[in-house]
């Protein structure tokens, strides 16, 4: 969820619309390569769908993975699938037809709701995973009593219920004839800046939501400071360290970096990169949506032996069944 600092003033226009039609664009300056870019995006989308679906299937079918960390990984895979499915079809449509595609305000708001909603949920899930790792490293004796199945379900439901209705605030605005968006999907700040009416309330509400998400990263960092302090203390006393828990900590840190680095990068580009080309903005905005869904399941598959083992068993059993 990216925030622009651009407050638009009412434009001088006699033509406004309560039901505007917006135009989605691709990669400015690379129109000749849109078909090749679409092939790349299609392949990446296939990787996201197959990889995250495999994670979901493995967690469901493997009883040994029915524990808090893997439940949170299950939620993370769902959010990655949601991000891809809510944006990639429209992006591919723009690239395949090599021309701006029309989208109504209501459809745009619906896409933004899922896009920003899944982004907000993913931030909350990463925070919950950090607390999970903090408890298992710093207070392992209370881990099973704190992270019960009922409590994990409550955490998941709470994260979903806290999703802010940010896109719906755009319904109250009126729009001039400038309906060309900067990306191949709808973003709150991109639509907001096209409004002719006063959008200050949307700006400050968007700022509040972004600050809430950034606070998640602060709490994640604090949790790992305590984890590192605990691990160093155990090592100095010659005690045994839970290597399995530490291994999942590494996976989680990778997932946090994969999510927040592109997010912060796009925020910086929007805030300080007004002199940069539209192509730079388009590349960063698409990286912000493509990188986490593509890499998250790969990181957890590589770093989690239980998941590797179950996936291997599934392929072996499938091969034996096919040969039989």
UniProtKB/TrEMBL annotation:
Quote any Pfam family the record assigns.
7tm_4
Q: Where is the G-protein coupled receptors family 1 profile domain?
A: 51-300
A single GO cellular-component term on record: plasma membrane
Q: How does it sit in the membrane?
A: Multi-pass membrane protein
GO MF annotations in UniProt:
G protein-coupled receptor activity; olfactory receptor activity
Q: Where in the cell is it found?
A: Cell membrane; Membrane
CDD domains, per this entry? Answer: 7tmA_OR51-like
For this entry, list what GO says about its biological process: cellular response to lipid
**Which PANTHER family does the UniProt entry name for this protein?**
OLFACTORY RECEPTOR (PTHR26450:SF104), OLFACTORY RECEPTOR 56B1-RELATED (PTHR26450)
Name of the protein in question: Olfactory receptor
